[in-house]
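Lab meeting, item 3. Inverse folding demo.
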């Protein structure tokens, strides 16, 4: 009887320890959480735009560094509201004419407001009228989708994939839209700066179209391009926040202007990480 008592006591202690451990750990979070304070992200974007003209290739590249404060608000129908403010914005443009530094001061402290659905669809409700060199407010908006993690519907982990899509207005002085249609999936576990995290990958097609006269263009242009896009998100399931993301895209299309149909190639790599 005494031995049985000791065994029972040992089992009770083990079960109590197990229950305590389970009770002390937070269930994984796969939904956007309301922010107690803004999340601060550093963002670097590098890209190129090349147009094949009768006189040879033309275009150039760009390198942009920004710090964005992103805050999620209350729940809305099918999603959550958000606001974003650029704390800093600096860009360098490269072309056959040389290198041009862009002063991003006009973009700072400007508030963008909108909402994001559970599938990543974005609705912009408020955006400032701001222009920074060749960047207009819609060009600045293009940074937002990469910080809005596509999470599984209902906030529950799934074995397969789920839809991820969004539409944004075209930037750079063009009237039109840029859309992304793809799917997201879990792609394993990782560690980011000592934090246990999950990897989410979104892959799909991007389509851009627009009409207008961009800064420096001699005449109106019509742009149409499409290509592949892939984004890798690092998600903290305990805190329910995005830790880092790397988004890459390559597109090809045509620029029509002054009676010419000119082949166009676009590339973009954007990397962002949470700054503690």
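The presenter then showed the designed sequence:
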């Amino acid at each position: 009887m005494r031995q049985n008592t000791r065994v029972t006591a040992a089992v009770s202690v083990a079960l109590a320890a197990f229950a305590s451990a389970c009770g002390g750990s937070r269930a994984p979070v796969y939904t956007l959480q309301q922010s107690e304070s803004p999340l601060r992200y550093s963002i670097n974007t590098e890209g190129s735009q090349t147009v094949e003209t009768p006189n040879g290739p033309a275009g150039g590249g760009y390198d942009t560094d920004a710090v964005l404060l992103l805050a999620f608000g209350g729940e809305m129908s099918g999603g959550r509201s958000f606001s974003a403010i650029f704390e800093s914005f600096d860009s360098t443009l490269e072309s056959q004419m040389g290198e041009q530094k862009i002063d991003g001061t006009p973009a700072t402290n400007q508030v963008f407001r909108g909402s994001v659905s559970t599938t990543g669809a974005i609705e912009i409700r408020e955006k400032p009228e701001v222009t920074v060199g060749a960047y207009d407010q819609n060009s600045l908006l293009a940074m937002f989708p990469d910080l809005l993690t596509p999470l599984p519907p209902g906030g529950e982990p799934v074995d397969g994939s789920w839809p991820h899509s969004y539409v944004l207005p075209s930037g750079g002085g063009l009237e039109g839209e840029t859309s992304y249609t793809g799917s997201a999936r879990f792609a394993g576990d990782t560690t980011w700066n000592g934090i246990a995290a999950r990897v989410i990958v979104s892959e799909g097609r991007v389509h851009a179209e627009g009409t207008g006269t961009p800064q420096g263009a001699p005449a109106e242009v019509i742009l149409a391009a499409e290509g592949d896009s892939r984004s890798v998100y690092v998600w903290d399931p305990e805190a329910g926040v995005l830790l880092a993301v790397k988004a890459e895209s390559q597109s090809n299309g045509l620029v029509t202007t002054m009676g010419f149909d000119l082949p166009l190639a676009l590339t973009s790599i954007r990397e962002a990480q949470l700054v503690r």
